[in-house]
Amino acid sequence: MTKAQPQTRIQKKNTRAILEAALEVFSANGYRGATVDMIATKAGLSKPNLLYYFGSKEAMYTALLEELLDAWLDPLRALDAQGEPLPELLAYVNRKLDLARDFPRESRLFANEIIHGAPRILAVLKSDLKVLVDEKAAVIAHWSAQGRIECLDPHHLIFSIWSMTQHYADFDVQVHAILGADHDPYPDARQYLETLFTRILRKN
Amino acid sequence: MTKAQPQTRIQKKNTRAILEAALEVFSANGYRGATVDMIATKAGLSKPNLLYYFGSKEAMYTALLEELLDAWLDPLRALDAQGEPLPELLAYVNRKLDLARDFPRESRLFANEIIHGAPRILAVLKSDLKVLVDEKAAVIAHWSAQGRIECLDPHHLIFSIWSMTQHYADFDVQVHAILGADHDPYPDARQYLETLFTRILRKN
DNA sequence: CCTCACTTTTACCAACTGGTCAAATGTTGA
DNA sequence: TCAACATTTGACCAGTTGGTAAAAGTGAGG
Questions:
Q1: Which residues does the UniProt record annotate as the domain HTH tetR-type (chains A, B) (predicted)?
Q2: Exposure string over B119-131, b if 16+ CB within 10 A, otherwise e
Q3: A64-81: pLDDT as tens digits
C-alpha cells in the first residue's frame, strides 16, 4: 500500500504537490465532499496520474493523516517535566496557538475526522494519544501535588487548551464574522489565553 | 421554498420524522456524506416520499439549520445584564454544557457547517450572531468596568466558553478515547469549568 | 358509494465519481 | 542510439446519487 521512499526527483515533486492539494481540498470539503478530480486540478495533474502515485482517494487521505499526526502532537511532547510548571504550560499553549494560526487546514482536517467519529485514527487516539496525554497529565498532577501550580483536573486542563486554541483555526469564519474580516484575532487571543491560564494556575 | 404550516396530522408526523432522521444522518456524515436514501431509511419512508415533503436534500439541511440556530443561541440571550455578573456567567457556561451533553448531534451539525466555511449560514453569523455577541460582550465589559468581575477581553471570553463546552460534544470520541469509553466526562467537566471561570473572573 | 385532494410507490434518468486499462510519451543509463 | 523503465493521458466503466414522472393507493366529507 505505502510506496517505498520516493526516489526520483519527479516522484518527490508530484507526491508533495498531491499531498498539498489533498490537504487543501480535504480540509475545505471533508473526505466525502472532496473529489479526486478537485485534488488533481489543484495539483495540476490528471486524475489517472494522481492514482498512479496514490492508489486511491483513501490512500491520499490516510497518508495525510499519518504525516500530520506527529506534527500535531509535538507541542505536547515538548512539555518538559523538568521545567518550571507555569512557563512550561504557557509555552505549550503558545505552541498550540501557533499551530492553529500557521496550519489551520491541518487543524480542520483533524477536527473533521474526529467530529465524524475518527473512523481512520480512532485506534491511534486510543493508544498513542492516550498514552501521551496520560503521561503529561501525570506530570501536571505531580506539579499540583508539589504545590507549584494550583490544583486542577489535568485531563480537562489539556482538553481546554486544545479546544480554545484550535477554535481559532476550526471556527475561523465564525470568529471573523464576529470580530470583522480584517481583524487578526491571534494577538488578542494570545494575550487572553496567557491571562486565563496564568490566573487559573498561578499559586496565590 | 418553505411550506406553509403543516396542517394534517400525517404531515406533522412525517416532517418531524424526516428532520429527526436528517439530524442524525447529517451530523454523523456531514452534508456531502449524507445521502437522501440514508435519511429516508432512518425515517422509515421512501426516498421519493421524502422529496415530497422537502423538495431537495438542501432544503432538509437548511430547514434543520434554521430550526436549530435559535435554540443554539438561547443560552446567550438569557445572559441577564441585571443579574449578578459571576453567577450569570457561570449559569451561561452550565447551560452551554447542558446543550453539549443533551444535543451533541446539533452541536456537531453546526461545527461541521462552520468548519467548512458556513456557506449556508454565514450571513446569519455576520448579522444576528454578531449583534447578539456584541451586545453581550458590552454587558460583560460593563461589569468589568464596574469592577464587579476581573477584566478580560469579553469576545474571547465568549469564544472560550463556546469552545470548551462544545468540545465535549464535537470531539466526543477523542474525549472518550482518552478518558475511557465508560467514563462520563460531564460531571468533571462541569466542575472544571466552574473552577476555571471562577478563578479568572472573581475579584480578589 | 364516490369524489377529490393528499400521500406513497415503482420505475426511471442524467450527472457525478472512484477507479481501470492500454496506449502514448518522456527519461535515463549503457 | 536504443532498450528499459517511468510517467502521463484519453477513453471508458460500473456504482452511486439527487431528483423526476406518472400511476396507484388512501381517506375524509358529501
A1: 12-72
A2: eebbebbbeebbe
A3: 999 999 999 999 999 999
- Mean pLDDT, rounded, of chain A: 95
What's residue B40's pLDDT?
97
Rounded CA separation B154/B124 (Å) = 21
B179 interaction partners in chain A (CB closer than 8 Å): 155
Flag whether residue B3 sits within 8 Å of chain A, measured between CB atoms: no
Residue written as grid cell 465508560: B182
B144 in Cβ contact with A88 (< 8 Å): no
Provide the number of CB pairs (under 8 Å) joining chain A to chain B.
Answer: 157
CB contacts of A153 in chain B (<8 Å) are 188, 191-192
Q: Is A146 exposed, middle or buried (0-12, 13-18, 19+ CB in 10 A)?
A: exposed
- The predicted-structure confidence for B122-139, as pLDDT tens digits, reads as follows 999 999 999 999 999 999
Longest dimension (CA), chain A: 64
Q: In the predicted model, what is the mean pLDDT of chain B?
A: 94
Q: Which three cell numbers stand for residue A120?
A: 481512520
The amino acid present at A23, given as its one-letter code, is L
pLDDT, mean of residues A131-154: 98
Question: How far apart are alpha carbons B201 and B126 in whole angstroms?
Answer: 28
For B14, the grid coordinates are 412525517
Distance, in Å, from the CA atom of B92 to the CA atom of B97, rounded to the nearest integer, reads 9
Q: What is the mean pLDDT of residues B164-171?
A: 98
Q: Which pLDDT belongs to residue A176? A: 98
ipTM of the prediction: 0.93
Whole-model pTM: value is 0.94
Judge whether B28 is closer than 8 Å to chain A, CB to CB.
yes
Helical pair A154-170 and B186-201, crossing angle rounded to 10 deg: 80
Distance from CA of A82 to the nearest CA of B (A): 24
Cβ <8 Å between B129 and A175? no
Query: What's the rounded Cα separation, in Å, for the pair B42 and B26?
Result: 12
- Going from the N-terminus, what domains does chain B have, and what CATH number goes with each? 1-55 (1.10.10.60), 61-201 (1.10.357.10)
Distance CA A69, CA A78 (A): 15
pLDDT digits (tens, 9 = 90+) for A117-134: 999 999 999 999 999 999
In chain A, which residues have their Cβ closer than 8 Å to the Cβ of B196?
A: 152, 160, 196, 200
Angle A21-A44-A14 from CA coordinates, rounded to 5°: 70
φ/ψ of B86, rounded to 5, equals -60, -50
